[in-house]
């Protein structure tokens, strides 16, 4: 009872501050769903190409503010081609007044992290003495000023690193997860960001999990959570995590989530190297990619075919190129992500954390920015992911106008070499359109040219002799990403491959089609991707 007046006062103040600063919301920032797609007011597809930005750890402050000005980080995010941030927040920041109203400086002081205070004073002086909630809002606003949409993700209750089965934050009824308090917190957050136009979605709760997990409570509380968010803020997409650490939505095939509103509900999925129990370095990459994809499709991906939007709100791995497990998973993930063209959020922009699991200044090897937030950790990864940032398909046209040949390892696509009969890798938005015909020829659209395996380890040619068996390409191997043919006039089997020194498409002996766990087939992986978007 005693908390109520102070809460109202708190919100009123907040709304006042928010409305003074709020810019008129851009029309394009009002999103809804159209079958499996997320679209703007005009019905045009908006592909969420997000990066996660953590603000849910003990300090309750978005990471990196001691290292760079918030506006600088927002501009980096935008210049890297991300159109959106999934910004994480801890429930108690909005349900516990003494936490939410604590100043940023105080929050670091209480944690004994005084060393960060100087950095924040230097880089973000205006955020040091305001409340953590005001700093949170400033981050959201800064992203908006740079044209970046925001999805607010209730990541955990008690501020700290997430997630484990027994951390008390896993499921409704856990030590720190009182459903009623959660409903209250969602309502408050949804109310607070009402006037901030670039907040386009709210994710109800991250990675539900743990021994209490059950479908009955999932339905009961997620439906309630969705309703309160929608009634407090009808503009945002409402995003729901499945079971088992956000890897499992199997039940949606039989049991719909019932809500009173339409065209706002999105489901999320997390997909890391280990999500499907796969140890990528222990098996054949083709077989494991198929197994992992089959699992993901049967547990969650199937909803796309049922007309529900799927937001892969966390995926990622080490960006060093030194982790075999993560590298193989990425190769597979990139192929599937291009083919299915779902919305996504990479983990993470953060190069290091103030404090993670007791470690001060812990480096984030998955981070797009380097440890001191001064620039990209790996520029070639940014190049690669840029292919997934633009939509391949639009929301309206259902039959593909063309198909492109995507190379997951590089994020590039096959295009014709200028004025030549050869092929090379180049930007997907500038690639040729291909058709894979009934007769297994790969034909360049609008021409009578098709791909032909001319000589071993030599460039694949564009030929008009499409009847030759050197021009028949079948997908082999479990991954279905190897395109195999014979060398013209011989029985030598080859696969499409890349000569990296020239980026030329060549015909090479097929690599590690099955069983072999030691070799990496990724240079030979290509995905034929439907493209309905006109460029
Ligand atoms: C709010 O947070 C403070 C600081 O962590 C804590 O001491 C207090 O018990 C919390 N209050 C409630 C109602 O949870
Ligand atoms: C970036 O990633 C690529 C590919 O995984 C790797 O080969 C390279 O060494 C990485 N660069 C850095 C600086 O980590
Ligand atoms: C690509 O388009 C074809 C032809 O319309 C369709 O059969 C196929 O299911 C599409 N594939 C994907 C992954 O959307
Ligand atoms: C393709 O995308 C790049 C940047 O991503 C852009 O510079 C280029 O103009 C685009 N090309 C076309 C044909 O749209
Ligand atoms: C390819 O193999 C078939 C059957 O083994 C054989 O009849 C044919 O002569 C071979 N062709 C060439 C060009 O070697």
TrEMBL record:
Superkingdom of origin: Eukaryota
Any one Gene Ontology molecular-function term assigned to this protein's record: hydrolase activity, acting on glycosyl bonds
Annotated signal sequence range: 1-22
Domain Glycoside hydrolase family span(s) in chain numbering: 72-349
Membrane-crossing segments per the record: none
Pfam families: Cellulase (PF00150), Ricin_B_lectin (PF00652)
Domain Ricin B lectin: 409-510
Gene3D superfamilies according to UniProt: 2.80.10.50, Glycosidases
Record's keyword terms, sorted: Glycosidase, Hydrolase, Signal
InterPro entries referenced in this protein's UniProt entry, alphabetically: GH, Glyco_hydro_5, Ricin_B-like_lectins, Ricin_B_lectin
Family designation: Belongs to the glycosyl hydrolase 5 (cellulase A) family.
Protein name, as recorded: Mannan endo-1,4-beta-mannosidase
């Amino acid at each position: 009872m005693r908390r109520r007046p102070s809460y109202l006062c708190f919100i009123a103040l907040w709304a006042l501050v928010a409305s003074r600063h709020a810019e008129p919301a851009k029309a394009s920032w009002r999103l809804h769903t159209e079958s499996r797609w997320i679209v703007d007011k005009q019905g045009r597809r908006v592909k969420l190409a997000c990066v996660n930005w953590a603000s849910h750890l003990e300090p309750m402050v978005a990471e990196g503010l001691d290292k760079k000005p918030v506006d600088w980080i927002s501009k980096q995010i935008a210049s890297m081609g991300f159109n959106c941030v999934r910004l994480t927040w801890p429930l108690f920041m909005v349900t516990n007044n003494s936490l939410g109203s604590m100043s940023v400086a105080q929050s670091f002081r209480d944690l004994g992290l005084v060393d960060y205070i100087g950095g924040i004073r230097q880089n973000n002086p205006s955020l040091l003495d305001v409340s953590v909630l005001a700093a949170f809002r400033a981050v959201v606003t800064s992203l908006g000023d740079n044209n970046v949409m925001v999805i607010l993700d209730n990541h955990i209750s008690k501020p700290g690193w997430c997630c484990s089965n027994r951390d008390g934050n896993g499921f409704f009824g856990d030590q720190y997860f009182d459903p009623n308090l959660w409903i209250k917190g969602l309502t408050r957050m949804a109310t607070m960001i009402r006037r901030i136009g670039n907040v386009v979605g709210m994710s109800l709760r991250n990675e539900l999990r743990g021994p209490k997990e059950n479908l009955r409570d999932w339905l009961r509380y997620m439906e309630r959570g969705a309703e309160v968010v929608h009634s407090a803020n009808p503009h945002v997409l409402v995003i729901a995590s499945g079971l088992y650490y956000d890897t499992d939505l199997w039940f949606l095939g039989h049991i719909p989530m019932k809500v009173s509103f339409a065209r706002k509900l999105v489901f999320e999925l997390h997909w890391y190297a280990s999500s499907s129990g796969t140890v990528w370095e222990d098996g054949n990459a083709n077989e494991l990619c198929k197994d992992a994809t089959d699992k993901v499709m049967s547990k969650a991906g199937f909803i796309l075919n049922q007309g529900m939007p799927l937001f892969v709100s966390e995926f990622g791995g080490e960006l060093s190129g030194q982790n075999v497990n993560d590298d193989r998973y990425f190769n597979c993930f990139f192929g599937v992500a291009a083919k299915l063209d779902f919305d996504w959020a990479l983990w993470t922009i953060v190069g290091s954390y103030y404090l993670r699991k007791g470690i001060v200044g812990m480096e984030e090897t998955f981070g797009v920015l380097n440890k001191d937030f001064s620039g990209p950790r790996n520029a070639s990864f940014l190049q690669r992911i840029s292919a997934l940032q633009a939509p391949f398909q639009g929301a309206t046209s259902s039959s593909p106008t063309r198909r492109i040949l995507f190379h997951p390892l590089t994020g590039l696509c096959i295009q014709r070499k200028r004025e030549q009969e050869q092929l090379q890798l180049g930007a997907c938005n500038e690639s040729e359109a291909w058709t894979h015909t009934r007769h297994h020829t790969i034909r360049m659209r609008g021409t009578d040219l098709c791909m032909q395996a001319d000589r071993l380890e030599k460039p694949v040619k564009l030929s008009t002799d499409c009847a030759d068996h050197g021009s028949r390409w079948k997908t082999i191997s479990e991954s279905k990403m190897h395109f195999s043919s014979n060398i013209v006039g011989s029985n030598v089997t080859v696969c499409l491959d890349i000569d990296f020194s020239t980026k030329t498409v060549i015909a090479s002996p097929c690599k590690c089609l099955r069983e072999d766990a030691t070799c990496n087939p990724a240079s030979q992986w290509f995905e034929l991707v439907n493209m309905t978007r006109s460029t």
